[in-house]
Each structure stands twice: as C-alpha cells, then as structure tokens.
Amino acid sequence: MNSTPMENRKAAYNTDLFSFLTASPTAFHAIHEMSRRLDDNGFTRLKENDLWTLVPGSYYVVRDGAALLAFTLGSRESTEQGFRVIAAHTDSPALQVKPQPELSGCGYRRLGVEVYGGAILSSWLDRDLSLAGRVAVRLQSSPTSKLFLIHFETPLLSLPSLAIHLNRDSTEQLNRQQNLPPIMMETGENPPDFEAILIARLRKIYPQVDFEHCELTAFDLFCHDLTPPCLSGLQGEFIHAGRLDNLLSCHAGITAITNPDRSRNTLLYCSNHEETGSLSISGAQGNFLSSVLSRILPDPVSRSRSLASSFCISLDNAHATHPNYPEKSDSGHEIRLNRGPVIKYNASQRYATSAATAAIFCDICHDAGIAPQKFVMRSDMPCGSTIGPITAAAHGIRTVDVGAASLAMHSIREMTGSADPLLCFRALSSFFAGNFHFV
Ligand code: ZN
To answer: Whole domain around residue 46: which residue ranges?
Structure first.
C-alpha cells in the first residue's frame, strides 16, 4: 500500500517527536535539547546578566536550566507591531528525589521521594524506572559548585506493586511517604552511597572532567520511565509516551520557531513548574517573560503598544473523552483523538480563551485546513488550568488556550492520536506565517 505525502510527513514528524521525548526525561534535558536545536538553526544564545544588542535576528535565553524564551525579531515587522507568541511548559508530574534520600531496610537500599505535580501514582508501579536531572558538584579545581546534567539511561529503580494476595483490597491508596520510595539495590557488604553512585555516573558522561576529590553539593533528580514512545492501534493511530503533557507542545513550538521563515516577530515561551502552580523563578508567575520583553522593548509605551498588538497561543494538552468513562465529559463537547487541536473554554477563566481569541485560532486553523474541536469541563466538576490565564493577565497579551487531545493525562504513560502532534504543528506554522490581524 502506497503512503500519501501527508502520511509520510506525519511519520517523519512523529519520529522527530519521539527522539525529542527520549532526549528529554526532565525539564532540564528538554531545555538542553531545545537549546541544541536553536543553536543548530542559527539562534544566538543570550545571557540575562550580559548587555544585549538586538538587531533583526533570532535569539534565545535560558533561565535556571528549565525555562526558555526564543524569539525572532523579524525583518518585515517592527517590534511595536507585536509578537506571535507560543507558550508551553517543560515540566511533567514525577517522583522527585529527596535531598538526603537513602533508606535502608529488609536488605534493600531505597530512595526517598516527593511527588512532583499531580502524578497518577499507581501508574509508577512496575515500570522500568531510571533517574535523571542535574547535580551540583564542587570540583577540586574551583571553590564554586558546577551544575551537570545527569541521565542514567538504564533501568535503575523499581517500584513493585504489592501482590494481590497481600492486598485483597487493591483499591487501597498509595501512601506518599511509605509506599513510594523506589528500590535501587540490595545492600550487601559496603554498598556505595548515593553520592558515589552519582559521581561514578558523571565520570562516564563527562570523561574530560576531573572528579577526583570532588564534593556533591546538591541535586534536582527525578525518576522517569525508560519505555520508549511508540505507535499503537491497528493502524498505528495512537501514540503512547511519557511526558506528552507538555513536551508535545514544546516540541511543536520549537519546530515552528526554527522554521526558516524569519520575517515576522515570533516568540516561544517554555516555562517550568506549571504542574505545581508556576510560582518560581522559572515559572510563568515569575518575571522571566516580562524581564526579557522589557529588554527587547525598553520604552514602556512601545512595549505596551507591542503587547496590545500581540497574540499568544497557550499550548497544553486537552482531555479527550474517555470511552470507558464518557460520563466524566460534557456530552455536548465530545473530544476525539486525531480530530485536531482543541480550544479550551472555562467560564471561571481557568483557561484564557474568549470569543475574540477563539475566533483568531479558528481563523488560523482555517488557514491551515484544520477544523479545531471545542472543550469545556462538565459544569459539576472542577477545571484544571494552564499558563494561559497567567500570561494574559500579567502581560496584557490576548491569549487562547488550546492543545492536543489526550488520554491518561498525568499518567507515567500518556496517550494521544498519531495525527495530533502534526495537526498542532500545522496550526502553529499557519499562526507564524499567515496574514492575520490581532487587533
Ligand atoms: Zn500541561
């Protein structure tokens, strides 16, 4: 059977998405991978503590290793004409390792963990878990600790479920303190301590660095599932992967902004800590975006004019209707996988969408030959949120909340349609390229 050009394009897009997901077990790795792609596409990296001289061109800034702002000052538009903004978040729910994590008992060494974000805890049982993040090390050659990315890339941790025979009431909730520390190893004679394990791994990753007599001073480490992303379903119509929320959107954003057409003002904002409320130095409630905007447009009046002419697509996955739990969704707003990006509405402004901003997104989709879907929560259930309302309120940028339809959101293994990532990207491409007026 011959494949159509669109099917080939979808397959190539998903292959690239899968490699992005695999390279990004944590927000730090996602930013590292996005930075690599921006470097490869001629973006200039700026540091917040340097002076900037901005001329038309493409730039990016990283904050705290886990948030990123990439922007193109277009050759065709002045900055006062506004920016086309895509916003997404880099973090995903996970188990985060405690600062002094070692636990011993029953012949095992385990790691104490906290729950980061709204993880579905049961999905972490019986998986091939590994460890990734960043560690700070004070080398012999310097009085100041240096940060290193770390990734074990092999199954290292396990969280076995309790046998059904010992747990007849298997609906019992997992206790976050007692039941979640994953097993790392058996404790034989003189087991290596956790610091020694991390340093040994760093030596393998960074053979050029001298770790002799070094001291590990701190770390941000997360457990993650090693199972690679895959296609499933009879026709390959589904995708299973970890961290689709919200790396699917980060990937779509980075692919769109590195597109060769750099004639317009575009901006990609990937923030951290959305899953815990966004209040941090690298979160959307922090001042990263406002600080960078004030340096692109130092004059307050010009900045206000620019933001009033800007438009933001806040891209974060949306809930598809679950066929086993249709009663959990509004029956008038059935959301399907593979049916295109979802516009999210909420009367209480948990999403930033209004008629004005939804209409613009409909125009963008129309231009791309895509029909968007419309989501609203059941009226008797609380609604989640995104960085959309924060971005709209803090910066005065009109914003629409949209995202790829997905199932099993916040599971260690989420699900979306295999057509959905490319459909989102095509909408973003149209947003960046089309002749839309946002005022
Ligand atoms: Zn999300």
So the answer is: 5-92+242-433
The CATH number linked to 181 is: 2.30.250.10
Rounded to the nearest angstrom, the gap between the alpha carbon of residue 270 and the centroid of all alpha carbons in its chain is 8
What digits encode the pLDDT tens for the residues 24-43? 999 999 999 999 999 999 99
How many domains does the chain fold into?
2
C-alpha of residue 55 to centroid of ligand 1, in Å? 34
In the reported structure, the alpha carbon of residue 247 is separated from the centroid of ligand 1 by a whole-number distance in angstroms of: 9
Work out the pLDDT band at 171, boundaries 50, 70, 90. low
Query: Distance from the CA of 246 to the center of ligand 1, in angstroms?
Result: 5
Q: Are residues 349 and 394 in the same domain?
A: yes
Confirm whether 234 is domain-assigned: no
Closest CA to 130 of 245, 24, 222, 19: 222
Q: Which amino acid is at 51?
A: L
Q: Which of 242, 98, 91, 92 is nearest to 181 (CA)?
A: 98
193 C-alpha vs ligand 1 centroid, how far in Å? 35
| In-domain check, residue 109 | yes
Tokens representing residue 131 in the block: 């460890």
Angle between helices 420-433 and 5-22 (to 10 degrees): 100
**pTM as predicted:** 0.97
Residue 233 maps to a domain? no
Ligand 1 mean position to 196 CA, how many Å? Answer: 35
**pLDDT tens, position by position, 92-114:** 999 999 999 999 999 999 999 99
Q: What distance in angstroms lies between residue 387's CA and the mean position of ligand 1's atoms?
A: 9
pLDDT tens-digit readout, 174-217: 999 999 999 999 998 888 899 999 999 999 999 999 999 999 99
